[in-house]
């Protein structure tokens, strides 16, 4: 387990001003009560690493002291900006959840910008929400617990399930999704399964994945109008909230050039805390659907976990 150290804790009474180091801070459900950024929101506490500060010092040709970039917590031993929302930092007493990486720079309207020039906080600073509070001071140590996204891929194919046909769509889903998540600094794990076009087996697989708390279920195959195409018929009644926009967009976007795309009955939605997407069986169609779905994944997961980053 990766650990890192707190090197300074800092507060300020006004937003947009440098923070001053203090001996200790008290973290609660509003962040730091005596700090300007406290409140019942997702940006309760700001953090910045000494490595990021050192890069700014080199570029500026002068040293910076902790708190000068308005961070509440200065750290050593971790590249904070390479974490991701929903990751957690846990110490013996305190638990923090990452909620935002970077922020908008207010430039000349910011006292920090006027005093120190270009600020590193918008690119490499992060924000966290207090999950479990307590007293924090320099030299305290946190463990880094990345949020691992669990993704279940189910391929529906009578032939592939018998070994008569190589499943290409399932591996393609995994490859494209991995590529996307790596760019987002996300940690993930996949579980794959190939089953025949069987209503009962599909329902059992989905129920088990939901029970096992998978974040995402992606199925491929069975979304057409053939006699063995049963995926939407099984999945749609199981959804608690249907996400219609994505599938409608794909059908219209590609159906304007290729009318066959309009025949797809693919659906998307949520079951408990799990996102569910049903994709067609061809690799080409899977790519078209993922091109529209993947950019929405992160925000959807944040919403499912009560994190509103509008």
> Strand percentage, roughly?
25-35%
Distance between the termini: 32 Å
Mean model confidence by pLDDT = 93
Task: Name the overall outline.
Answer: elongated
Tally of DSSP helical segments: 9
- Spatial order of the strands in the main sheet? 1-6-5-9-8-7-11
Helix vs. strand class: alpha+beta
Kindly give the count of domains: 2
Annotated CATH homologous superfamily of the largest domain: MoaB/Mog-like domain
Please identify the top-level CATH class of the largest domain.
Alpha Beta
Kindly describe this structure.
There is one protein chain. The protein has a seven-stranded mixed beta barrel with strand order 1-6-5-9-8-7-11. It has a six-stranded mixed beta sheet with strand order 13-12-14-17-16-15, with helices on both faces. A three-stranded antiparallel beta sheet has the order 4-3-10, with no helix packed on it. The protein has two domains: 3-145, M1 Pyruvate Kinase, Domain 3, CATH 2.40.33; 148-304, MoaB/Mog-like domain (Molybdenum Cofactor Biosythetic Enzyme, Chain A, 3-Layer(aba) Sandwich), CATH 3.40.980. The longest helix is centred in the last third of the chain and has 22 residues, at 283-304. The chain is built from nine helices and 17 strands. The mean pLDDT is 93. A hairpin with a 2-residue loop joins strand 16 and strand 17. Helices cover 30% and strands 29% of the residues. It has helices at residues 50-60, 111-116, 121-124, 158-161, 169-183, 199-211, 231-235, 244-255, 283-304, and strands at 3-11, 20-22, 24-28, 31-32, 45-49, 73-76, 88-90, 95-101, 126-132, 134-137, 141-145, 148-156, 187-195, 216-220, 241-242, 268-271, 274-279. The chain has 310 residues and is an alpha+beta fold.
């Amino acid at each position: 387990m990766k650990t890192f150290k707190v090197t300074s804790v800092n507060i300020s009474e006004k937003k947009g001003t440098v923070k001053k180091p203090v001996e200790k801070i008290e973290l609660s459900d509003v962040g730091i009560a005596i700090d300007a950024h406290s409140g019942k929101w997702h940006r309760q506490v700001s953090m910045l690493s000494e490595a990021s500060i050192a890069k700014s010092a080199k570029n500026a040709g002068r040293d910076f002291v902790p708190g000068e970039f308005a961070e509440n917590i200065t750290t050593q031993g971790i590249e904070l900006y390479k974490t991701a929302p929903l990751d957690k930092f846990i110490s013996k007493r305190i638990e923090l959840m990452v909620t935002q990486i970077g922020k908008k720079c207010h430039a000349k309207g910011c006292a920090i910008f006027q005093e120190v020039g270009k600020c590193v906080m918008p690119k490499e600073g992060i924000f966290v929400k207090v999950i479990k509070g307590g007293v924090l001071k320099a030299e305290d140590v946190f463990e880094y617990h990345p949020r691992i996204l669990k993704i279940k891929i189910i391929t529906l194919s009578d032939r592939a399930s018998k070994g008569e046909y190589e499943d290409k769509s399932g591996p393609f889903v995994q490859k494209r999704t991995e590529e996307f998540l790596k760019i987002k600094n996300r940690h993930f794990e996949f579980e794959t399964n190939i089953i025949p076009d069987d209503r009962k087996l599909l329902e059992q697989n989905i129920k088990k994945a939901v029970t096992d708390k998978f974040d995402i279920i992606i199925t491929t195959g069975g979304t057409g109008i053939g006699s063995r195409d049963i995926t939407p018929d099984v999945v749609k009644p199981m959804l608690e909230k249907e996400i219609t926009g994505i599938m409608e967009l794909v059908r219209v976007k590609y159906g304007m050039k290729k009318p066959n795309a309009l025949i797809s009955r693919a659906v998307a939605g949520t079951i408990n805390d799990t996102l569910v997407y049903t994709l067609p069986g061809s690799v080409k169609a899977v790519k078209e659907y993922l091109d529209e779905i993947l950019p929405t994944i992160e925000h959807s997961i944040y919403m499912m976990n009560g994190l509103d980053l509008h």
